[in-house]
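Supplementary Methods, section 5.1.

A reviewer requested that the exact input to the structure prediction be made available. We therefore reproduce it here, unchanged from the version used in the analyses.
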Amino acid sequence: MADATQGTDDAPAPRSGARPATGRRSRTPRLARTGLPAWELALLGGLVLVALLLRLWNVGQNLPLVYNIDESARFVPDAAGFFSQRLGYRELVNPPGMMGLLGIVDQLWFRPQGMSPGEALARDPGQAYLLGRVVVALLSVAAVPVLYAAARRLVGRTAALVAAGLLAVAFLPVAYSRVALADGPTLLFVALGLLGAAWLLQDPPARRRGLVLAGVAVGLSAGFKYNAGIVVLAPVAALVLRTAETGWPHAIRRGLLMGVVGVLSFVVSNPYVLIDPHEVWRAIEYQANWSASGRYVGEPMTNGFAFYTWAAGWGVGWAPLVAAVLGSALLVLRRWRIAVVLLPLVAGYLLVMGPQDRFFARWLIPIVPVLAIAAGVAVAELAGLLRRRPVRIALATVLAVGLGAQSFAHSAHTAHVVGRDDTRTVARGWMEANIPPLSGVVVESMSPGSWMPTLDGRDDWFSLNRWSRYQTIPAVQRRDAREHPQLRIKAGFSSWVRILYPELLDEFERYGYCWVITGSYQAGRAGRTPELVPEAGRYYRELTRRADLAWQVSPFSPDAGPKGLPYGPTTAPVKYQIDRQATTYELAYERPGPMVSAYRLRGGRCAAPDPVVPNAPWG
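The structure derived from this sequence is encoded token-by-token as follows.
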């Protein structure tokens, strides 16, 4: 089938070793440096602008408070001490490429201001995190034109424009390019790897730019996100496809050169493979064991392949997913060489990630560029069925807009609503106004420690304890650990609901922890998978029986559920799902954050108006 705009300088992708065809002479103005028609460059520029706006709109959300647990604990804090402190295996669970990049940026940004990155993080954490977010957003945006360049060489102009448009608006790439995590930059390196593969497939055999680019891209992909190193399959496939023309010895030599460049790039982005290889291996083992350590509480799906299909349906779009399947089939049938370069990346990635016990939607991000290209192929082939050029262009435009509509709506909605105060910020203000200082509070793990205000109410973001916050009471732990072994677990975000049991409320009342602040990020997990944490379910039911609901804030629109009724801890208008709540995906959101409820226990010390907490830090 012809490409959708064939006949207007959109020649099919050239064969191996051939120069790109220019097609018949066109009257369309071209820019000398790019060789692209001015209208095409303008359209690509528009897509880049859309990508930039979606990623930078309200990018400073909630700062200086950082509610994403991965963002608050990793990358920006580790970058501040990257050149002065040694990372351990806990930090190296995420490869340090992103930390090193942000460490360099921090040095360039904060040193002229007379501060070290560590001092800047302590004095003004909001600026440090905003800088990290902007860097991530810009690198993610850069992936759009790079993917376009790769796709244009592989599958033609129409498919490339569709692919670039999808990457610009796709929800998962947008949402995770708005926080200081490694996912946004990884998109750029994967796209560069695909461009390197395209050059390897089509350049003259003596030309080495594809080898160098592919090697650098593979090394940086793995250095920023270990599993993204699977992009190596694309340039390797391109080298193998050229063996009929170049012979195996030549292909092996070129592959070794690419491998050397890749290893050097990986070492530059992850110097700990030389500094402390034991800790790197320990980190990889830790991550592998964690991923295989049983179902994640709150995730009802048990099959990784089904989960990633579902995640692609909402994280990229159901229409693009169907189009990607169709486009993949068309590539296999009509352009098998391109299929060999692109599709093993998706298949191999899913074969590695699908069988694991735990899965998260953002782990899908490294293969989104290939899905976007495959969807673009489907659009180009369908539009190419029509003979008249204006009709082809119109159909391709309608199909492209339709493919991006779902993601654009959710991406734009999220970018808008996250500019409002997070429910946890609202809850913090309510607690300051209504819970006396020094009171005993039980705050579920839904916020970083810096969320707690100081005694005098100052915004001293890395100081704690306006209230006596429950952690673990040693006497209770010693007495009940045999009957309730979950008390031995450190009560972090992932394990909070595992430490809960109904009798814990007796201890709260006995020791004066009378205010219990619940959030749907924890209670919702217990409600979604009650079979995994049955005691937590009983704890929440007992809480509603023994405590009064004093206050509640919901992030959802009043139209999202029954009106006039407060929700229980484990219920909400929208069912809990960790990825969709963490990214404020649902259109029902009016502001970011979980549903937060404040309960006041009535028994024991809590029967008094101002109970004293006997084990409070101040005595």
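Confidence is low (pLDDT under 50) at residues 1-9, 15-24, 460-464. These observations are discussed further in the main text.
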